[in-house]
Amino acid sequence: ADEISVVPPIESASVNGKAERQAPAPVVESADELTSARAAIESGDKEKALAHYSDLIKTRQNLTTIISDLEKAAENYPEDAAIQRKLGDAYLRNHQMNKAMHAYSKAEQHL
Fold this sequence. Notes:
Elements: E1 13-15, E2 18-20, H1 30-42, H2 46-59, H3 63-76, H4 81-93, H5 97-109
Antiparallel strand pairs: 1-2
Helix pairs in contact: 1-2, 2-4, 3-4, 4-5
């Protein structure tokens, strides 16, 4: 009988037999991005604000501040599923699973 071996997945790409590291996430100037996100939400441009917050969440920096901002936005726009979803993303990145699930559930209710 033939034996089957399982090969674990490779985390980095291989080029010509040499392991290549994947490119790191782009560096975001957090202060500028946060200022832009806040200005956009203040002016009512939720889509632009959420794009900025999305970039910030990916950096995993200042998550407490981002969560606070998104909680306020969710209070101001309680029917907005996109804000709830982005709040869920922030909670998830901050390892607050229960709060993330609650935010995602609220987002689903408003779809």
